[in-house]
Design goal:
Elements (H helix, E strand, L loop, with lengths): L2 E5 L2 E3 L5 E8 L7 E7 L6 E6 L6 E3 L7 E6 L4 E6 L8 E8 L2 H5 L5 E2 L3 E5 L2
Parallel strand pairs: 2-11
Antiparallel strand pairs: 1-3, 3-8, 4-5, 4-9, 5-6, 7-8, 9-10, 9-11
Length: about 120
């Protein structure tokens, strides 16, 4: 069974940092495009970042550009989302997702989802 597990969420003050991890069991992440999505209360889940299978290409939504960095660690079968300069508006449940096709990540319909991790940015 293919499973994704996110970790690293928590409570942080504005301006602080967190690193989210997305770890896979049952499959190797190398063959999959990975996306990070988030869902704030009352809003739809939306993609904020994604990375290609090779790790050479990445995407960021404008609101996180320059603050968030997505990366792969193939040896650990893990994808990270480093989040710096966090703002209150970054508060959301963060999900990682995987699919062998980029369009599925791009359209928000990947085959595999993690359970989500809460990130709360508050003084």
């Amino acid at each position: 069974q293919l499973q994704l597990v996110e970790s690293g969420g928590g409570l942080v003050q504005p301006g602080g940092s967190l690193r989210l991890s997305c770890t896979a069991s049952g499959f190797t992440l190398d063959a999959y495009f990975i996306g990070w999505f988030r869902q704030a209360p009352g809003k739809e889940r939306a993609r904020i970042s994604s990375i290609s299978t090779s790790g050479d290409s990445s995407y960021y939504v404008d609101s996180v550009k320059g603050r968030f960095t997505i990366s792969r660690d193939k040896a650990k079968n893990t994808v990270y989302l480093q989040m710096n300069s966090l703002k209150a508006e970054d508060t959301a449940v963060y999900y990682c997702a995987a699919d062998s096709k980029y369009w599925a990540i791009m359209t928000g319909r990947p085959a595999h989802w993690g359970q989500g991790t809460q990130v709360t940015v508050s003084p």
